Amino acid sequence: MTSSPGPASSASTGSGPTETDHRTYDVVVLGGGAVGENAADRAGRGGLTVVVVEAELVGGECSYWACMPSKALLRPGAVLEAARAVDGAAQGVTGMLDVGAVLARRNSFASSWDDAGQVQWLESTGIDLVRGHARLTGPRTVEVHHEGQATTITARCAVVVATGSEPVTPEIPGLAEAQPWTSREATAAQEVPDSLVVLGGGVVATEMATAYADLGSTVTVLVRGERLLGSMEPAAGEAVAAGLRTRGVDVRFGTTPTRVTRRGSGVEVETEAGVVTAAEVLVATGRRPRSGDLGLETVGLEPGAPVTVDDSLRVAAVPEGWLYAVGDVTGRVATTHQGKYDARIAGDVIAARFGAAAQEEADGHVEPAAAGEQPAWSRYRATADHGALTQVVFTRPEVASVGLTEAAAVEAGHAVRRVEVPFSSVAGAALARDEVEGRAILVVDTEREVLLGATFVGPEVAELLHAATIAVVGEVPLPRLWHAVPPYPTVSEVWLRLLEEYGL
Length: 504
Prior knowledge:
Blueprint lengths: L20 E10 L3 H12 L4 E5 L5 H5 L2 H18 L14 H11 L6 H9 L3 E4 L1 E6 L2 E6 L2 E13 L3 E3 L15 H6 L6 E5 L3 H12 L3 E5 L11 H13 L3 E3 L4 E7 L2 E6 L2 E5 L1 E4 L3 E3 L33 E3 L10 H19 L1 H5 L23 H4 L2 E4 L4 E6 L2 H6 L4 E7 L4 H6 L6 E7 L4 E9 L6 H9 L4 H4 L12 H9 L2
Parallel strand pairs: 1-2, 1-6, 2-3, 6-16, 8-9, 8-14, 9-10
Antiparallel strand pairs: 4-5, 5-6, 7-15, 11-12, 12-13, 17-18, 18-21, 19-20, 20-21
Helix pairs in contact: 1-9, 3-4, 3-7
GO biological process, one term: 2-oxoglutarate metabolic process
InterPro entries: Class-I_Pyr_Nuc-Dis_Oxidored, FAD/NAD-bd_sf, FAD/NAD-binding_dom, FAD/NAD-linked_Rdtase_dimer_sf, Pyr_nuc-diS_OxRdtase, Pyr_nucl-diS_OxRdtase_dimer
Family: Belongs to the class-I pyridine nucleotide-disulfide oxidoreductase family.
């Protein structure tokens, strides 16, 4: 269904809408982050007119306050440590990180928080942009408010919710008043505080504790539970805790803040065990879907809750199948790469349902949005969300995982065997650094002899993950995987050691 966006197509320039602006597009995407961009792009390839609505910066969380700036902060410390881990190179390392240079490089990766380049990309693909906060006002209808003006947009075919997630601030007395950092402030800071208290034990908490320790802060991590990275294999959290402590970070488990007070240029965090003081406090206790003010109640959904979708990313609870949701807002995924995967599928589904090719094949056309009618490996079904989620934590050591942990596999009813080997058994790992550390863990379905999950803990293990992902997604039988010969001497030879440990 192709048609012009109407006389108000000047939105692609990013100019503000007029008070009487009414527009019609085939597809309306709420959220201009990486996930929303992918959904818009794939739908547009089907010949549909598409508009993206974004209240902040086009490019979203990943580009400016998450993936890109956080890894830019973490990489220099990792490189410096890698050099110091090899005799001969270590003697050439005579100084510490140049903090100003690290922050400047980070700024460049965040485009200095200017989205002009991202807007230009939208324009190049023929996707329009409307800036402002969007709310559904009824079926296929969105109202956007920006600088006192309103734009009403009607979607002929579909609306895609791609608004991401937002940090959760726990209800600790005084915390909100203390104006704590969230991940945004931590990744965008232009000065490094002398000291930092981190509340939480997940990915953001451990990565930012690592980064700020590298940059010279005295870091204390307060964890309510008894381990870090609670959704991963216990060995991963144990290794990361040990790595943080090696770098001077004070990691305290079983510690719950009871009050936070900002006094002058610093904060006091009270706990049952005493008071921790620091220049700043970072709240990294989790995130929730950003769905609280989207007008979901006008179409029968609960504001603030995950927007539940089927495997075609369609919101089945909304009649006529016009509403889709992708990324963090669904509660299915919590990473940019997995959200982009969902977005590509949703965009393809929408294009196949409503695009030019679908109109040409209307007679006898099988609607791909009916996920239950599609095979498991169809490009119109997000099956990876169920058993092949991937995650990398860029701490030191790094943690990379795909699929199910041993505990999750057992809980799901699988007959499993855990296989674990240290990287010290691999010659390539010894060549990479003088003090070999880390381990690799496989979770094997013993009935089918296929991988259900894999976890790697050690330096640069992110680069090992995709091979494991292919094995999990492809359900490659271990006897066949035995014939995938890893090159020598590389760290990937750990695959040979794992299969030998299994008994092949």
